[in-house]
Design a protein that fits this description.
Helices cover 60% and strands 3% of the residues. It is mainly alpha-helical and 499 residues long. The protein folds into 3 domains: 27-153 and 232-267, Transcription Elongation Factor S-II, Chain A, CATH 1.20.930; 159-222, no CATH class; 287-479, no CATH class. The longest helix is centred in the last third of the chain and has 31 residues, at 468-498. The N and C termini lie far apart (78 Å). Bound molecules: iron/sulfur cluster.
């Protein structure tokens, strides 16, 4: 009885403290949605969480980078970032108090710090990481509730000095002139703060603030600029400090491979993984369908492997691996896979095929050896591991072909789907800048324009290609949608005619 009462008391206390926590944001570990990440997260974390939090954040940062490369407008970048965040890293405002805000914010916090470890290692990585993180912070700031932003700003010392009403009156004319040159409606009730002019170079450059005695008079509507600058500077400093401390981590055999994987993905311009959960069920396609599918739905890497296989009636080890796993995830069953490879290697006798190749195909389906069900290779893996040598046909054409060969290959692969030589300069420009997956995404858009894919739409909601199976799956989906629509239109037509 005593125990029951004690338990009830404990439960009541826990509920009360939870309510207090919700009502009094100040006592929570993460009182605000926005975070300057001054302190690292404390407490235990599993290796799995360590990696998942970072990968999910990386998907968003990679999409922000792609948006920069593609010259997307701020609104487009913002929309894509919000869509990606809803999928991988939800972060709600305090008003959504029924949700588990603490765990959302912890995931955000952990992910940020893991990526700091991965991206502090070189000047280039640091610069790109700071740029993408600052854009993410800005998207959140812009899309947050005004009241919550204000609370967040009050919680930190940004080192600005409030301008008194007397001072505003004294410089009223100059302040109005600055407002007019920034296309701001004059507002007599506008509040101002003063900071050293060096802290707001962007506002000075655009003549959006009044300057006096080395101080910039920043109206409340422009204060976010100081906040973003501060975020950027403090993150850059922290990354430089982390880089100095990093050698101590080098001996940790659990963490270092994860960090290497993360930074390699970002260097290649793509986040690590596309979930193959939505891929084929294993019985969807047959060996006979592959020629037609390659022509209509495959990205350049797989299209090239398919054409080499047809031409040489053979593929070397890494080529078979890359293409075989792709076809498996696309939906080719083990029996169909054996039939496909057997027929494709038409110069080889049955005996040799059974001895040397059948086992490997069954192995990749998890039916031999370790019995692991191997996933298909992502763009990141194709771009960064097992570099192809002479005579190899695996890899990513955007990265591994010479510029001339790439242009010839693209025209021969995709001109029947609408790609013309006029499209090549834009694609080659992206390739030269090292953004191979962005070039691949642009080719996807051009070759699917007839199915209604617009420039900038990527493989859906502005997403870039990160996995060959994602490319093929979206292409097939678009075809099904179009066929469905045509079927519907024909049905509608029948109804009209019958009427
Ligand atoms: Fe294949 Fe990815 Fe390269 Fe496109 S970017 S060709 S999908 S590896």
């Amino acid at each position: 009885m005593q125990n029951k009462e004690d338990r009830q008391k404990l439960l009541a206390q826990q509920t009360l403290s939870k309510i207090n926590e919700v009502e009094n944001h100040g006592t929570r570990r993460y009182p605000h949605r926005l975070n300057f990440y001054d302190k690292p997260p404390l407490g235990d974390i599993t290796i799995e969480d360590f990696e998942t939090c970072a990968l999910d954040r990386l998907r968003i940062l990679a999409e922000i980078e792609s948006s920069f490369v593609r010259n997307r407008s701020w609104d487009e970048l913002k929309n894509i970032t919000i869509t990606q965040s809803d999928k991988f890293l939800q972060l709600n405002s305090n008003s959504a108090w029924t949700l588990d805000l603490e765990s959302q914010r912890r995931k955000d916090h952990v992910g940020h710090f893991v990526l700091r470890l991965a991206f502090c290692r070189s000047e280039d990585l640091r610069r790109r990481f700071v740029k993408a993180e600052t854009a993410l912070f800005r998207v959140r700031f812009d899309s947050d509730d005004g009241e919550e932003n204000l609370e967040f700003l009050k919680s930190r010392d940004f080192g600005w000095e409030e301008v008194t009403a007397d001072e505003v009156e004294e410089h009223f004319k100059e302040l109005q002139t600055a407002a007019a040159s920034a296309n701001r409606e004059p507002n007599p009730k506008e509040r101002y703060c003063k900071v050293r002019w060096t802290r707001v170079p962007d506002l000075i450059e655009k003549r959006r603030v009044f300057l006096k005695g080395g101080m910039a008079y920043v109206p409340s509507r422009e204060q976010s600029s100081i906040v973003f600058q501060e975020f950027q500077n403090s993150l850059m400093k922290s990354l430089e400090m982390t880089a100095k401390a990093l050698p101590f981590l080098d001996e940790d055999t659990r963490i270092v491979p994860i960090l290497n994987n993360l930074s390699q993905g970002f260097l290649a311009g793509v986040s690590s993984e596309w979930s193959t959960a939505t891929a084929g069920s294993g019985n969807e396609i047959t060996a006979d369908m592959i020629d037609d599918m390659a022509r209509k739905h495959f990205p350049a890497c797989m299209r090239n492997l398919h054409e080499c296989l047809r031409r040489d009636k053979h593929l070397k080890h890494f080529g078979r691996l890359q293409y075989g796993l792709f076809l498996k995830v696309l939906g080719l069953s083990i029996d169909e896979a054996i039939s496909f490879w057997r027929r494709s290697f038409s110069n080889i006798q049955d005996d040799k095929f059974n001895k040397e190749y059948r086992y490997n195909i069954r192995h990749s389906f998890g039916l031999e050896g370790k019995r692991a069900n191997y996933p298909a290779k992502s763009c990141q893996q194709i771009l960064t591991s097992d570099q192809p040598g002479t005579g190899d046909s695996h890899g990513c054409p955007y990265r591994h072909f010479s510029p001339d060969n790439l242009q010839t290959a693209l025209l021969s692969m995709y001109s029947s789907q609408g790609l013309t030589s006029a499209d090549l300069p834009e694609i080659m420009h992206t390739v030269k800048a090292g953004h191979y997956h962005v070039a691949c995404t642009r080719v996807f858009e051009i070759t699917h324009a007839r199915q209604g894919v617009a420039k900038g739409e990527g493989v859906g909601s502005g997403e870039s290609v990160t996995h060959p199976n994602q490319y093929a799956a979206r292409s097939r989906e678009l075809e099904r949608e179009r066929d469905g629509d045509n079927g519907k239109k024909e049905d509608d037509g029948d109804v009209v005619m019958m009427g």
